[in-house]
Structures are given as structure tokens and as C-alpha cells.
Predict the structure.
Amino acid sequence: MREIVLDTETTGLDPADGHRVVEIACIELHNHLPTGKFFHRYVNPERAMTAEAEAVHGLGDDFLRRHQPFAAIAAEFVAFIGDAQLVAHNAGFDLAFVNAELKRLDLPPFSGAVVDTLEIARKRFPGAPASLDALCRRFAIDLSAREKHGAKLDCELLAKVYLELVGGRQSALNLGATATKAATRAASERPARAPRHYEASADELARHAALVAKLKAPIWQN
């Protein structure tokens, strides 16, 4: 199963107010495990950054002007997503911005399956904090590099959180596959075991003889 973990950073909170994407990141998962493939771009929003948003992610106008607008990366982004299921934290926020950017280019909105990890966390841990930071702390995921929000780092953290939310499957602990490989190895490839011989003690021999003496017409004497 191919999935894409998605995260965005933006100039504000609502695309309906003219706010735009300034960073977008995607990480590919196969059967919930990262494949190593990712998509990451900073985006020129073609508008001024708000002070409130810059305080969250640290991306300012001077830096973003050096990057391409969304129109220049849209085709590559859409191709990377393909028909995969999306995974996002508070997915409605990210999809609203992505679809607004696609609409500006007369491209169809994303209409595939979406997994919202915020909803999963709220169902699994009702009443508990469900932010990405809170979930990382719950699952002992290292947050030391997260001084500010950043789409690529947040994608990497979310991929780890998602694995924990769906059962904590770790590629390094995939013992089932290892066991299957060992079981299917040809017998000639397996190391030979030295034969084991055990000698009965005198006491064991005496007790065995006493037991046999009590038997009436044992089958081996017929």
C-alpha cells in the first residue's frame, strides 16, 4: 500500500483570505514504512508573509523570493502524489491550501483517500493533547530538532507518529519476515547440529526395571 505523508507551511490560516503555501513536503510510505523517497520545496507565495506565520515557521519574504512559485512545481508535486492515499495531521488544513493552489492553476483538486492522524489520535487517546509535539512525546520520538515548524521535519516526525498510531510497526523489528526467510532456507544451507546423547542414571534404570516388572503381558512380549 502506497501512502504519502503531507505537510505544508503557509502565510496564514485560511486560503480563502488569500493566504498561500510557502513550503510543502511529502514522504512516501509503503505498507506504513518510509521508502526513502520524498518531495520537498520552498515556495514563493507571491505575497507578503504575515508576522504571525513567520514566527511559527521562520520563513521570511527575502528567503521565499529566491524560490519558484507553486505554478512551477505543481506538475512535479501532482506526479509524486499519484493515486496514493494521503496522511496528514489536521488534514483539512493542508488539503484546503493544496486544493486552493491547484484551483488557481485550473487543476483538479485532490479527491483520493485521506488519513487524518489528528482524528486517529483523538479517538485513541480521548481528552489527551493530540498535537504533533504531544504525540511525539507520548511515543518517545525525538523532538530536539524541532525549534520551529518545518514541513519536511514535521513530515518525518509525523511518519513516525503514524506508525505508532497504526500499531508501532518498526522496520528494524520486522521479525516475521526474518523468521519466514529462515524457515524457507534449503536444508543444505542450515548449519548441522551435533547429535545429542543422554545416558540414564543408575537410579533411573532401577525405577524403569521396577515399572516393567509390574506390567502384565507387555505388548513387546507377545
About this structure: The mean pLDDT is 85. The longest strand covers residues 21-30.
